[in-house]
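pasting for ref
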Amino acid sequence: MDFDSMTFPLTVDISGVQYWIGDEGPYKLGMAATEFLAGDRDGELREELKELLRTFGFLLSPFVDGRAVAGKRFNLPEHTVGCTVSYGYRPISGGAYFVERYTVISLRDFLFAELGKGILYGNSPRQCRLCGRWYFHEKGNRTIYCDRVAPGETERTCREVGARAVFEKKIQDEDAWKIYKRAYKKYYARLMKGTMTQEEFKAWADEAAAERDKALRQLQRKKISETLTAEIFRELREKLNRK
């Protein structure tokens, strides 16, 4: 979608989650705002669209700058868009769509209307958790990474690299839990045999849970090395089995 070639007033036909601009389309609602935010455009309009996402798109987790929504934003939520709306039919092969026909007078109005409609239908721009660039988020799509080539890679995409990182993190967490569960079973067996009192077992269990949670927090650090990971597991194993 070439924003520089758009002429205003602009007529947009919207039906369901798709729309047409003249003979072009159908586009999915939210795609235009995504393309605008993903480009090299800066300035007031870009910040306005980010604020709209922060305020109204929070349920879609758009990850806009990682900032929380200010409560005062909900006291003044209105964003006025200059447009007229009519209803009509858009002919297609074999039939027609009933459409809302928007006539907008500026790029700002078009992007606000398109993004607002997109959020209502569950679509929005989203920032990639890996590269930070914008990509189109469609309702029901739970991915948090885009399909562009990842930073520092020649072929693998952010989605591929991110999925691998999530998988490795899950394995690390599972290993920490395995160490904890093995130790728990060992000390619980001592309690059942009478070689450990209830008070001693409770004291161990409280300390073990704290050490487990500490190890999990350490494993959540970004770019943790294999050497440090192994050291965390070694210390956890020793602390849980030292009595």
